[in-house]
Amino acid sequence: MTATTDQLSTLLKNTTLRFRPCHEPALQDLIHLVNNACGGKYGFVSSHAANTIALAVFMSLVLPAKYKNLRFVLLVFVLINGYSRMYLGAHYPLDILCGWILGFIIALLFSSLMNIIVNSTNQIKSEHE
């Protein structure tokens, strides 16, 4: 799932060709970089945002209810990760939001696929018993 999310977000970056804030000529002098690192040239959509929310949503959907506290921890992780991308000048807020949307959709698709596989496997097992 993460590979799918990562590859689709990279495809969007290479299709839209929107500069990251730290590579935008008008903003470069206003952004303080950590260790002079900015990342790739383009930033729409955020792969970090897409990957983290895909993982969080997928795990929230497939884990049993007894792990409800983990869902909260995952949500906090997603929010902190998204904020850090903006704070570091690597992404605009819309990059993060669209990354979250992409990751959310992919997580829903993969959890649905997993449910189909599990249900069909259980059905096959019950037919052979």
Query: Mean pLDDT, nearest integer?
Result: 91
Structural class per helix/strand content? mainly alpha
Radius of gyration: 18 Å
Q: How would you characterize the largest beta sheet? A: none
CATH architecture: Up-down Bundle
Distance between termini? Answer: 33 Å
- What is the CATH topology descriptor? Vanadium-containing Chloroperoxidase, domain 1
Query: Count the strands?
Result: 0
Report the top-level CATH class.
Mainly Alpha
SSE arrangement, N to C: HHHH
Number of domains: 1
Low-confidence stretches: none
Number of helix segments? 4
CATH homology superfamily name: Phosphatidic acid phosphatase type 2/haloperoxidase
- Give the overall shape: elongated
By oligomeric state, this entry counts as single chain
Share of helical residues? 55-70%
Layout of SSEs?
Blueprint: H1 2-16, H2 47-62, H3 68-87, H4 93-127
Helix pairs in contact: 1-2, 1-4, 2-3, 2-4
Notes on the structure:
The chain starts with a helix and ends with a helix. It has helices spanning about 1-15, 45-60, 70-85, 95-125. The chain has one domain (about 1-125): Phosphatidic acid phosphatase type 2/haloperoxidase (Vanadium-containing Chloroperoxidase, domain 1). Helix 2 (about 45-60) runs antiparallel to helix 3 and helix 2 (about 45-60) packs parallel to helix 4 (about 95-125). Helices cover about 65% and strands about 0% of the residues. The chain is elongated, with a radius of gyration of 18 Å. It is mainly α and about 130 residues long.
Brief synopsis:
This protein is mainly alpha-helical. It has helices spanning 2-16, 47-62, 68-87, 93-127.
